[in-house]
Write a structure and sequence with these properties.
465 residues, alpha+beta, eight-stranded mixed sheet, five-stranded mixed sheet, 18 helices, 16 strands, 42% helix, elongated
Length: 465
């Protein structure tokens, strides 16, 4: 007999944990839609020539490849003489988005505002808290030829709305700008673009690896920066704003001279900060952080990372930024964009480990118990009545001892058990057992649905759903 087990690197949940996870998905989707983003889904697999165009190296080693026998047979029937149509599972949602926008460019309205919430796959070494299959929840705004910096300011407003409703504790949206960082490096004499990209990657690791490690790396082989240059870089990277006014002061103190990149980065950040405040994000929830660089080279302007104030060890719970040209490998059109991603599987796992989220109540709100076989038709009619009122209802389809039915409801997380025996039926009432409050009461049958709706609405208000 084969032992049942899941492959390493996946998260498989029990129903009540799955409900909690699904509710987080619902909150994210609801807020994305409130800000005018439209849903998109792309296939779980792409043609490998599309998927790997902008990657290679470490990314390519992490990609899962697949080949459908049916697709191969069809390929040969089509008369192709060489090669095979190789497929690969998507490793993020950004490359599929680039392909999607390039393919449908003439059918879309720009700026194109899309959200996408799907699983992605990476062949990483399985370890605690890291997954090979996981949900990403992305939004992006894509422009045609140009995209106003004002869209960069809207992204923190979306982040704030999502995490405020998720109610997982105080958080800070940290902002920076890659142009500002490149201009600052240039002012220090680090003018080579390739070296700047390497320095940016190391600065982005400051919170994870510490000052000593990053300092040693920047002065070591492959970088060769002087001690004074590294000291200046790290001094800047450690600065955090404490208020909106303080963030503007930090920008004023940088100076610009004839440094165009630094000047542009400061101007963009200043406009973003002013609009973030105008969009209603409290200044307690955003800050400048000059160490935020985002390791991916395609970011060119504003960058974001969001962290939980009380759980810094969790790291970034939402990140992203501005990029100049999304789909240069697939179209001659210039398609700049800005976006963010929430890695929900990893976030949910970490929040559960930290005790911030817990199993949810069952999505089934009522169990109609079956007192004896003769009452089955009546129990089914009562369930229909409750479902018609919008109450999720399960019927016990086999008569069992009432204690066992209560035990089942409790284990399944169902709050209310409704009972109709001969005595209750004769008096036109139903008995209701509230397992949460450990109380039992009777109601006229025609008042049952209304009374339960009131109780369930109060429960939703208390739980903030």
């Amino acid at each position: 007999m084969i032992k049942p087990r899941t492959p390493p690197g996946v998260m498989e949940l029990l129903p009540r944990d799955q409900i909690a996870f699904q509710r987080m998905l619902d909150v994210i989707r609801r807020n994305y839609e409130r800000f005018g983003f439209l849903p998109v889904e792309t296939p779980v697999f792409e043609l490998s020539e599309i998927l790997l165009t902008k990657s290679g190296g470490e990314t390519e080693r992490q990609v899962y490849f697949a080949q459908s026998t049916g697709a191969l047979e069809q390929f040969h029937k089509s008369g192709a003489s060489e090669g095979t149509p190789e497929l690969a599972l998507r490793f993020d949602l950004t490359v599929p988005l680039a392909r999607y926008v390039a393919e449908h460019e003439h059918e879309l309205a720009f700026p194109f505002r899309r959200y996408q919430m799907q699983r992605v796959y990476r062949g990483e070494r399985a370890q605690r808290g890291r997954f090979r299959e996981f949900y990403q929840c992305d939004i992006d705004v894509i422009g045609k030829d140009a995209l106003s910096i004002r869209h960069d300011a809207e992204i923190p407003a979306v982040i704030y709305a999502v995490f405020r409703e998720l109610d997982i504790g105080p958080f800070t949206i940290q902002l920076n700008n890659r142009k500002l960082l490149r201009g600052f490096f240039e002012a220090l004499g680090v003018a080579d673009g390739a070296l700047q990209a390497l320095v940016l990657r190391e600065v982005d690791k400051l919170d994870k690896r510490g000052e000593d490690h990053v300092s040693a790396t920047l002065m070591g082989e492959g970088f060769g920066l002087t001690a004074d240059t590294v000291t200046a870089i790290l001094a800047m990277a450690k600065v955090r704003s404490t208020s909106h006014a303080n963030a503007l002061e930090m920008l004023d103190q940088l100076g610009v001279g004839d440094n165009e990149s630094l000047r542009d980065g400061i101007a963009e950040l200043r406009e973003v900060l002013e609009l973030v405040r105008a969009l209603g994000v409290p200044e307690t929830h955003y800050a400048l952080n000059f160490s935020i660089a985002r390791g991916l080279d395609y970011y060119t302007g504003t960058v974001y990372e969001t962290t939980l104030n009380d759980y810094p060890q969790i790291g970034s719970i939402c990140s992203g930024g501005r990029y100049d040209d999304l789909a240069s490998h697939y179209t001659k059109s210039k398609l700049p964009g800005v976006g963010i991603s929430i890695g929900l599987t990893r976030l949910f796992w970490q929040l559960r480990e930290a005790g911030i989220v817990s199993s949810a109540e069952s999505s089934v709100q009522v169990l109609v118990a079956l007192m004896d076989e003769a009452r089955l038709t009546d129990s089914l009619a009562l369930a229909r009545q409750l479902r018609a009122a919008g109450i999720a209802t399960e019927v016990q389809l086999e008569a069992k001892k009432i204690g066992r039915q209560f035990q089942y409801a409790d284990r399944a997380g169902i709050r209310f058990v409704v009972l109709v025996g001969e005595d209750e039926a004769a008096r036109g009432v139903v008995a209701v057992k509230d397992l949460r409050r450990e109380a039992q009461f009777e109601l006229p049958r025609d008042e049952l649905a209304g009374a339960l709706r009131v109780e369930l609405e109060q429960q939703r208000v208390i739980e903030g759903q």
